[in-house]
Amino acid sequence: MERMSDQPARWSRATVYPDMWADPDDDPRNSEGASPDGELATLLDFLAGYRMTLRMKCEGLDAEQLARRSVPPSTMSLLGLLRHLVEVERDWHNWISDGDPLPKLYGERDADFDGAVADQAVVDAAYSDLAREQAATDAALAEHPDLSERLGKDGTSVRELMVHRIEEYARHCGHADLLRECVDGRVGQ
Predict the structure, then answer these.
(1) What pLDDT, in 10s, does the model give residues 82-128?
(2) How far are the Cα atoms of 38, 89, 105, 126, 143 from residue 134, in angstroms, in the given order?
(3) Which of 6, 83, 108, 120 is the most exposed place for a label (fewest CB within 10 A)?
(4) To the nearest whole number, what is the mean pLDDT of the chain?
């Protein structure tokens, strides 16, 4: 007797390696040629790759699917992750600033996840907010190409901040893998 399940069947668009998100020739994260030269260029390349991976994990889903909390009892959703990373980018920008910190965009503790509702306007705002906050943090850090330079009130090194950014996106891409698989069954790196 076959068991009924409300879990979607696992699938991938990849045909060359069925455990991948996309075939190597179709994966926008794959680039031809040598990897970047130098530590800063390498860090920026990894950050860009994880940012793109997160967006890829969210693409093709509607507002309800993006807002679905698919791994109970967690309140985490793909939309919540996008909104969380908006706040994280803003926090990083605040770390390197000597001025007054910018306020949270979505409110206090867990508002980024709690406010991730199935509304296309909320989805559009999250993508727009994320692009804006990423650009602001990127621009602020571009003024400090010396990875050992210490910034802000806490004296955080640029290197530490860059590694922390990569770690944050990488960790949340892992969450996005599981969330996406639970939403529609799509798997892959």
Answers:
(1) 999 999 999 999 988 888 889 999 988 888 999 999 999 999 999 99
(2) 22, 6, 14, 12, 15
(3) 6
(4) 90
Q: Is the dihedral of CA 41, 44, 46, 49 positive or negative?
A: negative
Render 40-56 in DSSP notation, one character per residue: HHHHHHHHHHHHHHHHH
Give CA separation, 35 vs 42, 49, 54, 126, 150, in Å.
8, 12, 21, 31, 27
Per-residue CA distances from 103 to 35, 87, 91, 94, 124 (Å)? 37, 9, 9, 9, 21
Please identify which residue in the block is written with the tokens 């920008």.
93
Contact present, 93 and 134 (Cβ < 8 Å): no
